[in-house]
Specification:
The structure holds 3 protein chains of 3 kinds. Chain A is mainly α. Chain A is 72% helix and 2% strand. In chain A, strands 1-2 form a two-stranded antiparallel ribbon. In chain A, β1 and β2 form a beta hairpin. In chain A, α6 packs antiparallel against α9 and α11 packs across α12. Chain B has one domain: ABC transporter involved in vitamin B12 uptake, BtuC (Orthogonal Bundle), CATH 1.10.3470. Chain B contains 14 helices and 4 strands. In chain B, α3 packs antiparallel against α10, α4 packs parallel to α6 and α11 packs across α12. Chain C is an alpha/beta fold. Helix content of chain C is 37%, strand content 24%. In chain C, α7 links the parallel β7 and β8. In chain C, α3 packs parallel to α6. Chain C is globular. The chains are: A mainly alpha, B mainly alpha, C alpha/beta. The interface between A and B is large, with 53 and 48 residues.
Chain lengths: 333, 354, 266
């Protein structure tokens, strides 16, 4: 089928792009691996934010544009509270705050809009973004704050025996990857093995059917948003430790949107894989492609990574309008 | 009593189909235009022109453009400021490299270039729908942001990346004072509003609305989805491109690439949500609201004796914006325009309660 | 050229033919190897228990669904995949089971969209409301007003369709289809949810359409009384297969049909 052919072409192009820097010797194998690892780890962070999207969309069909703002809000809460109490207490309190936030959002915003067009819900979450931004900065202040996870910030050399000069990696990136992996495993177990997890999957499949067997829809939505809030918290702490907690985090969180496109809106493995593809693709494009483009088109600097993720998502959508793992959409007339 | 249609019988379809079928509406519009063009220039202060009316007029035009795409045709766009950017830089380059061109021609050409780019980014809408399309439109935003920041030709190799424009001269008339800028913009916006109103009343407008309401049924009736969607993107981008050129030349004077960033895109979206999607009048309401609110927030606390730092004011702005979006989406999805229409209906019955 | 049983009406040759149509959605086989034809100027009813594949059949005829197998022949042109837009151009119009009206527009505007196919003025002409565009708009307004008169909905022209009661919405749906001046009209349960009086009105309108404009009509209907009264010939579907094809009397006596409706297991 034509669609499969386009998909194969796209994948071949991507794979070619992936291998090209190595093949052309644009960088030493060591450097290449560094960039690759850096990309993978950035990708993990994107996946974390995307997970929040997918959770909410899966269970309630809402495209939560406010996920980025939630990440920032969570990070801000932890950062500021940690100034007066041990970090782990701050994180626990933040969990409570995010759950409370979930309640409020579900009650005030989602419930009244329950049967509306998805685009209307998107715009409502846009409103929530603005609210959270302003509110968060009012309460917690608008400077740049720090989250100290107790992990050394300096990069570390590894694999000196395999690659000449070794590879530089950041310990906090490794910590982030570990956190994300743990989260995914926990979520997977939750969804597959627990009663609530099963209920969530039922709701995701068919709201009405789930309701008719007695699953309380509203409570499920609160659970889902709380989960998403916790995921946002983890993402916020991880990002915040790395970048410092500042407004630009919500911009970065926008990047999670292309991730969700690639992986499909309703797939957790899709969010992971999508995140990795975006993370690696972006880094590769910026490090290896940008210098070529700058020379060829006489550009004033790189910055390709600002749009690469989105254009990649766009290309994917043209081939697969439902994302890599998304569900097909059949119109009933 | 005042606002009654009684006695205004239409004896021809032409009379029934005119833009303002009710006499009182025509009188109101006439008075409004009289005020806008003949009275305001002498009565309003420069400050009012510069800080409210000029940005209001230009943003109304942009909101109108976005409304045609989102409110009438139902295609979401989160990156529309990108097309303002295209219009602005196109106008800049045209004025720079072809200085003999009349500014009106520059405006139209800039709009056409923006329309072309909009058409290009509209092509994904043929395959992609709803939320996926929203993300795809972000690609336009960030790519265009990047292009104008990095491709040096666009900014005429300026080292700082900023461009500045000369005063507009039209038929020997220098548009350099606030009043002149205001009159020029009022004229342009009036013309464009009339054209937009004509479009939405005609079969193209109905095709757009059909696509918005139920695209499968529209196709069955014989409406071509491709044509409808692409014309919506093109016309919308044309309007927004012209608005962008005006924003750069008349309001800003000089700008750097991030002047048309995603915040502006989201602001445009807010304008039409609050003002009313699918309503020409609503675009104006929304634009006025977004322009006036920050100013109100800056002045009001002083008036009631409360100290408000600029940072706090901007946070408050965010909170109020967010709350209003949610409020309007829940309570009155058709925005201020609907409230206006309800007001008119009440006026029809006044002084009777029902 | 056979003479129809209703006095005075002349039924022509085949205008629509479906051969060996099979349609499946994943594992669900909606239509299995169905063949039948519709003759010009006749009223053909499709009946059958719920889920028999009737709506899917209409969707195949005007191209909303593409069958995995089979051909659709309209006006002598045979196609495996019907293109919806082309179907409209060639003169096939339809109404929908769930009234697919444009909720954001008035009754008048909804019906005017039925004329979109024939309105040719360009973008600029419309924007500037040039005399040619205005003339075209008025000309088609006239045509639409005739349909409005015909279906007696004059009082509701400017009302937003969402505000109308169900029965009137169905009439607007029909008006929009009629505005297309179709050769073949597909009606999907036009009388669903109506009371006795509304049904009588709708029957009258359908017969008038067939009578005055000679439009061929294919309709899905559950009310047996209506079907027997107004149709010239009937097709019976059950579980996606054709189990009956003939005049109302022939079908009424068909044992397979009776079994299907009484739910005898098969």
């Amino acid at each position: 089928m034509k669609k499969n052919r386009n998909l194969i072409i796209l994948f071949i192009a991507l794979a070619a792009g992936l291998i090209a820097p190595l093949a052309t010797g644009a960088g030493s194998p060591g450097f290449y691996t560094e960039v690759l690892l850096g990309g993978l780890m950035a990708g993990v962070l994107y996946s974390l934010v995307a997970l929040g999207f997918v959770l909410i969309f899966k269970a309630s069909g809402v495209f939560n544009f406010a996920q980025g703002a939630m990440v920032l809000f969570a990070a801000l809460s932890v950062a500021r509270m940690a100034e007066r109490m041990p970090l782990w207490v701050a994180m626990l309190l933040a969990v409570l705050i995010m759950v409370a936030l979930a309640f409020v959002i579900e009650r005030l915003v989602l419930r009244p809009l329950v049967n509306q067009d998805p685009v209307v819900l998107l715009m409502a979450t846009l409103g929530v973004t603005y609210l959270l931004d302003g509110f968060g900065q009012t309460i917690w202040g608008s400077d740049i704050y720090e989250i100290n996870l107790g992990i050394a910030r300096e990069p570390v050399m590894i694999l000196q025996s395999v690659f000449q000069g070794g590879i530089l990696i950041n310990k906090d990136d490794v910590a982030a990857t570990a956190a994300a992996a743990l989260l995914v495993i926990l979520l997977a177990l939750f969804f597959q093995k627990t009663k609530t997890g099963r209920a969530l999957r039922a709701v995701a499949d068919d709201h009405l059917a789930a309701q008719s067997i007695g699953i309380p829809l509203n409570r499920i939505w609160v659970i889902v948003w709380s989960l998403a809030g916790i995921v946002a918290l983890v993402a916020g702490v991880v990002w915040g430790a790395k970048l410092g907690v500042q407004f630009s985090i919500s911009q970065v969180a926008l990047k999670a949107l292309p991730v969700v496109i690639l992986g499909g809106f309703t797939s957790i493995p899709g969010a992971i894989i999508g995140g990795l593809i975006i993370g690696v693709g972006e880094k590769m494009a910026e490090v290896f492609l940008a210098p070529i483009a700058v020379k060829a088109f006489d550009l004033a600097g790189g910055g390709i990574e600002n749009w690469f993720a989105y254009v990649l998502a766009l290309l994917f959508l043209l081939v697969l309008p439902e994302g890599l793992f998304g569900e097909k959409h059949i119109d009933r007339v | 009593m005042l606002y009654r249609e009684n006695g205004q019988f239409k004896t021809s379809y032409r009379a029934d189909q005119q833009m303002l079928p009710i006499l009182q509406d025509r009188i109101f519009m006439g008075l409004l235009l009289l005020f806008v063009f003949a009275i305001a220039p002498f009565v309003f202060s420069d400050y009012l022109f510069l800080s409210i009316l000029i940005p209001f007029l230009i943003l109304s035009l942009a909101a109108l453009g976005l409304n045609l795409l989102v409110g009438y045709c139902g295609q979401i766009s989160l990156g529309h400021a990108a097309f303002m950017s295209v219009g602005a830089y196109a106008a800049y380059n045209l004025a720079l490299r072809v200085p003999q061109l009349n500014f009106l021609v520059v405006l139209i050409l800039a709009g056409l270039i923006a329309a072309l780019v909009g058409l290009l980014f509209g092509i994904p809408s043929l395959r992609i729908r709803g939320l996926y399309l929203a993300v795809a439109t972000l690609a336009a935003q960030f790519f265009v942001d990047w292009a104008f920041a990095r491709v040096k030709w666009f900014t005429n190799y300026a080292s700082s990346g900023s461009v500045s424009t000369a005063t507009i001269e039209l038929f020997g008339w220098q548009i350099n004072s606030p009043v002149r800028k205001y009159l020029f913009l009022a004229a342009v916006v009036t013309v464009f509003a009339v054209l937009a109103k004509n479009l939405v009343r005609s079969h193209l407008g109905r095709a757009w609305m059909a696509m918005r309401d139920m695209d499968v049924a529209a196709e069955v009736i014989g409406i071509r989805p491709v044509y409808a969607k692409l014309t919506a993107f093109a016309v919308s981008s044309f309007y927004v491109g012209v608005a962008g050129a005006l924003w750069g030349f008349v309001h800003l004077g000089s700008w750097e690439p991030l002047a048309f960033n995603i915040t502006l895109s989201l602001n445009l979206l807010f304008m039409i949500i609050i003002g009313g999607m699918g309503s020409i009048l609503g675009s104006f309401f929304g634009a006025f609201f977004i322009v006036a609110l920050p100013i109100l927030l800056n002045q009001a606390p002083a008036l009631i004796g409360v100290e408000l730092s600029t940072a706090m004011a901007s946070h408050l702005e965010s909170i109020i914006f967010g709350a209003l979006i949610i409020f309007f989406l829940i309570v009155e999805p058709q925005g201020l325009a609907r409230l206006w229409a309800i007001g008119k209906e009440k006026l029809r019955l006044w002084p009777f309660p029902h | 050229m056979a003479m129809g049983s209703t006095g005075g009406k002349s039924i022509g040759g085949e205008i629509l033919g479906l051969k060996n149509i099979s349609l499946a959605f994943g594992g669900v086989r909606a239509i299995q190897d169905v063949t039948f034809e519709v003759r010009e100027h006749e009223i053909r009813a499709i009946i059958g228990p719920n889920g028999a594949g009737k709506s899917s059949m209409l969707n195949v005829i005007n191209g909303v669904y593409h069958p995995q197998q089979g051909t659709v022949t309209f006006n002598g042109v045979a196609r495996h995949d019907v293109n919806t837009h082309e179907a409209a151009v060639q003169g096939i119009a339809r109404t929908f089971q769930n009234i697919a009206l444009f909720k954001g527009m008035s009754v008048l505007d909804n019906i005017m969209t039925g004329r979109n196919l024939r309105m040719k003025s360009g973008l600029l002409a419309q924007a500037f409301r040039l005399p040619s565009a205005e003339r075209e708009e008025l000309q088609h307004r006239e045509a639409v007003e005739q349909v409005i008169d015909f279906l007696e909905i004059q009082a509701y022209r400017k009302t937003p369709v969402g505000r109308l009661p169900y029965g009137l919405q169905k009439r607007v749906d029909l008006a929009r289809a009629l505005a297309m001046e179709p050769k073949l009209l597909l009606l999907d349960e036009p009388m669903a949810g109506m009371n006795v009086e509304e049904k009588q009105d709708m029957c009258r309108f359908i017969l008038d359409v067939n009578d005055q404009f000679g439009t061929t009509i294919v309709l899905i209907e559950h009310d047996m009384g209506v079907v027997m009264d107004i149709s010239d010939r009937v097709i019976v579907l059950d579980y996606g297969k054709k189990i009956g094809d003939g005049t109302p009397d022939e079908v009424r006596g068909n044992q397979a049909v009776i079994d299907a409706y009484l739910g005898v297991s098969h």
